[in-house]
Design goal:
The chain has about 600 residues and is α/β, with parallel strands linked by helices. The chain is about 35% helix and about 25% strand. The chain contains 17 helices and 27 strands. The protein is globular. The chain binds 5-amino-5-deoxy-1-O-phosphono-D-mannitol. 5-amino-5-deoxy-1-O-phosphono-D-mannitol (M6R) binds near residues 300, 347, 351 and 604. 5-amino-5-deoxy-1-O-phosphono-D-mannitol binds near residues 299, 300, 302 and 605.
């Protein structure tokens, strides 16, 4: 939530900040702003709305001219989106941008009003930090930042400029992610690597409590206690193209098309001689054998990948799996045993609730495994074991390729665990792994063959106020994700329901023409699902059935059908995901919505 950037170097600072913020808009997009040293003075430009609104404003009013500064794109937490609540925020001598939340801002505000008669312009917690920095500023920036770090509580990353320290940017990280890029004679700060990849691939990962000073194109670091720190320079393995749309109209559709490659890159290094091998992630058959129970904890789409994981692991490895929403798990005093495994799934690796679960479990004897996409993210670094998904940067707020590779990892894990526990023999394990290897090809074929029909069906959905996604077994797990995808970008109310549960209440919602999307890929449950489809059809629903190309379904049960390739039941979710993504995408496009930046949302949810 919120993206921050900073720059010191020879380029036009305003241009660099805007270009970097473009790559971070997925983190928040209700307002944007920059602060740049112009002739030794801090000049601020900010505006409610998208970054493009700020750019327009600067075209009319002039952009700050200089070579050092900070920038921000906002997802509002304290105070509505408005010009005045936009970052940067300033005290008399200090201007800051902030990602995260300051929990004790009210106490500090009170303290400043009473002790400094400070007047506040905005409703934000950020302005309180700017004013507190100002209050303590005695000409020594590091001492002042450290003093403030002792007083503020929460999760945050800050970019800071001091009026009497021109051409210098300070940055500090406590929880919220922050990287420091190092180019030739120039340096950057950013909430995420794609922001700076156009300029440099070399970056440092700021750790908790570390402060960076960007000056004269180079960077120095000190810790919370003011001691100098030597840091390891990392090199991003993403290229500039991965953060661009590459000819597609939206990141979401580009990312849907990237799924075959993402799956291939994720599974290939984890398969040895036709069998799953997670040893490069520190996971051996012995480790996998040792667990009694598994908890999968995550948020949103990542949690839905866990739902598929539950069905597959329980079915194949016969180990009990509980799937929980992270924000619930952390407060429900869960019973976690010594030989249990807690799997945290997260694309960003920074989701506040998922991170909190990790910290909670670390206080027990259970082992933690992170399945994460962003390298070096907090969750990845703090878990006992980590399996990186190799989806590359996912920019669209609606997750697609990250979900797909999370599924791929769930399968690898289930297969290896089932084999390690002796629940399946080598031949079966080879057969399943072989099918997984073929998935990139099958996914590609599916995207190409059903795009047109999904595009057409979406035109039938755009007028709906509400719809249902239904399914049984793995199809129910999948329909949860289909429903979330659709509602988050089309703004059509949607719920997912276990098909057999409808008659216990929800079927009363069905009215004439209400769309019901049925996922019916599980052959063993097909007849039962078809009965449920007929039940809603008989009550006036417009039914859309996602099934395999060979499924025998009465024509009169389905108003529309999306036929997908038939593969083994177990792996069907990886194919059936595609039509759900495309239906959501085209419905959003046809409604004229901002597909990649749906209202009220942000990609990386670093607040509770
Ligand atoms: O980065 P994470 O995977 O931890 O994020 C979890 C959810 O916020 C995320 O999956 C969200 O539900 C997506 N926007 C859905 O498309």
């Amino acid at each position: 939530m919120c993206g921050i950037v900073g720059y010191v170097g020879p380029r036009d600072c305003s241009d660099v900040l805007v270009s970097a913020l473009t790559k971070l808009e997925y983190r928040g997009y209700d307002s944007a702003g920059i602060a740049v040293f112009e002739n030794g003075k801090i000049e601020v430009a900010k505006s409610k709305g998208r970054l493009s609104d700020l750019v327009e404003k600067m075209k009319k009013e002039g952009k700050p001219q200089g070579h050092a500064g900070i920038g921000h794109t906002r997802w509002a937490t304290h105070g509505e989106p408005s010009d005045v609540n936009s970052h940067p925020h300033s005290g008399r001598r200090v201007t800051i941008v902030h990602n995260g939340i300051i929990e004790n801002y009210k106490d500090i505000k009170q303290f400043l009003i009473e002790n400094d008669r400070t007047e506040f312009l905005s409703d934000t917690d950020t302005e309180v930090v700017a004013q507190l920095l100002d209050f303590y500023y005695d000409g020594n920036p590091i001492r002042c930042i450290r003093k403030v770090l002792h007083e503020i509580r929460g999760s945050f990353a800050l970019g800071i400029v001091f009026a009497d320290r021109p051409e210098t940017v300070y940055a500090v990280r406590c929880e919220s992610p922050l990287i420091v890029g190092q180019g030739k004679g120039e340096a950057f700060i950013a909430s995420d690597v794609p922001a700076i990849i156009k300029y440099t691939k070399d970056y440092y990962l700021l750790e908790y409590g570390e402060i960076a000073v960007l000056k004269n194109g180079s960077v120095s670091f000190c810790d919370f206690h003011g001691r100098m720190v030597e840091k390891e320079l990392k090199t991003a393995d993403w290229d500039e193209d991965s953060a661009e749309k590459g000819g597609y109209p939206h990141f979401m559709i580009k990312e849907i098309h990237e799924q075959p490659t993402a799956v291939k890159t994720t599974i290939t290094p984890r398969i040895e001689n036709g069998l799953p091998d997670l040893s490069e992630c520190g996971i051996t058959p012995e480790t996998l054998k040792s667990f009694n129970n598994i908890f999968i904890v995550a948020c949103g789409t990542a949690m839905h990948a866990g739902m598929v994981g539950k069905y597959v692991i329980e079915k194949l490895a016969r180990v009990s799996v509980t799937v929980d929403i992270a924000s619930e798990f952390r407060y429900r005093d869960p019973l976690i045993g010594e030989n249990d495994l807690v799997i945290i799934i997260s694309q960003s690796g920074e989701t506040a609730d998922s991170k909190a679960v990790l910290n909670l479990v670390k206080g027990t004897k259970a082992k933690t495994l992170a399945i994460v996409n962003v390298k070096g993210s907090s969750i990845a670094r703090e878990a006992d074991m980590v399996i990186y998904t190799h989806a590359g940067p996912e920019i669209a707020v609606a997750s697609t390729k990250a979900y797909m590779v999370q599924l791929a990892v769930m399968y690898l894990l289930a297969f290896e665990m089932a084999y390690a526990k002796g629940r399946i023999d080598e031949e079966k394990c080879r057969q399943l792994t072989g099918e997984l290897v073929k998935m990139p090809e099958v996914i590609e074929k599916t995207i190409n063959s059903i795009s047109t029909v999904c595009q057409f069906i979406s035109t039938q959905l755009i007028t709906a106020d509400s719809l249902l996604y239904i399914g049984r077994g793995l199809d129910y797990a999948l329909s949860m994700e289909g429903s979330l995808k659709l509602k988050e970008i089309s703004y059509i109310h949607s719920e997912s329901y276990a098909a057999g549960e409808l008659k216990h209440g929800t079927i009363s919602l069905i009215t004439d023409g209400m769309p019901v999307i049925a996922v019916a890929t599980q052959n063993s449950l097909l007849e039962k699902t078809v009965s449920n489809i007929k039940e809603v059809k008989a009550r006036g629903a417009m039914t859309i059935v996602i099934c395999d190309e060979k499924a025998e379904i009465d024509r009169d049960a389905a108003d529309y059908m999306v036929r997908i390739p038939k593969i083994s039941q177990t792996l069907m979710p990886m194919v059936a995901t595609v039509p759900m993504q495309l239906l959501a995408y085209y419905t959003s496009v046809n409604k004229g919505n901002d597909v990649d930046k749906p209202r009220n949302l942000a990609k990386s949810v670093t607040v509770e």
